[in-house]
Amino acid sequence: MEVIIEGKVKTVYQGDDADRVIIEYHDKVTAGNGEMVDHPLGKGSLCCSISSIIFEKLSKELIPTHYINMVGANKMICKKVDIVPLEVICRNRAAGSIVRETTLVEGTPLPQPIVEFFLKDDSKHDPLLTPDRVRLMGYDPEPFIEMTLRINDYLRQMFYKCFTLFNINACSFVVH
């Protein structure tokens, strides 16, 4: 298979059809922009399965995704899309960079979800972008914000149901 792009934990291959790709999830985790690496057995198939379930549920909510179906334990077929060089993060609680870069305390619930943009570029350490910078890059941030908040609302409801079903204390998890 022809490799289109190889990331830290996934590889994207050209599919049989010009409009499709195969995404392979690897048994690999990274942290610190890839500076720390581990290879837990089964991680690729677990992440692929969880992603497939979430994409299927989002599709049922009429939220568009690139997902078509799973093939094998750690691969999925997806629509070929143009990659936008943005990471869009929705935060419900203070965690990660928002704690390191502000006075917020880890785990603090936020009064409302906030959407942040980061440049997807490890060589620049994925810097935080303002909506104005996103516009200067040629993208309208508003559709990203609207879709992100819609997805966040659905996923929060879905995970709440999972926590309730399995009697898990949701307060012990930080979802950001």
Description:
By secondary structure, the chain is an alpha+beta fold. It has two domains: 3-79, Phosphorylase Kinase, domain 1; 86-172, D-amino Acid Aminotransferase, Chain A, domain 1 (2-Layer Sandwich). It is 30% helix and 29% strand. The protein has helices spanning 43-60, 97-100, 131-136, 141-165, and strands at 3-6, 10-14, 20-25, 29-31, 36-38, 67-70, 75-79, 86-93, 109-119, 128-129. The strands form three sheets. Strands 1-2-3-7-6 form a five-stranded antiparallel β-sheet. Strand 1 and strand 2 (10-14) form a beta hairpin.
SSE diagram, text form:
Blueprint: E1 3-6, E2 10-14, E3 20-25, E4 29-31, E5 36-38, H1 43-60, E6 67-70, E7 75-79, E8 86-93, H2 97-100, E9 109-119, E10 128-129, H3 131-136, H4 141-165
Antiparallel strand pairs: 1-2, 2-3, 3-7, 4-5, 6-7, 8-9, 9-10
CATH architecture of the largest domain: 2-Layer Sandwich
Q: Can you tell me the residue ranges where pLDDT is under 50 for at least 5 consecutive residues?
A: 171-176
Number of helices: 4
Domain unit count: 2
Tell me the total number of β-strands: 10
Strand content: 25-35%
Instruction: Report strand order across the widest sheet.
Output: 1-2-3-7-6
Q: Briefly note the structural class of the backbone.
A: alpha+beta
Q: Could you estimate the helical fraction of the residues in percent?
A: 25-40%
SSE order: EEEEEHEEEHEEHH
CATH class of the largest domain: Alpha Beta
What is the overall pLDDT average?
Answer: 92
* Major sheet description: 5 strands, antiparallel
The shape, in one word, is globular
Evaluate the radius of gyration: 17 Å
End-to-end Cα distance, whole Å, is: 35 Å
CATH topology heading of the largest domain: D-amino Acid Aminotransferase, Chain A, domain 1
Identify the CATH homologous superfamily of the largest domain.
ATP-grasp fold, B domain
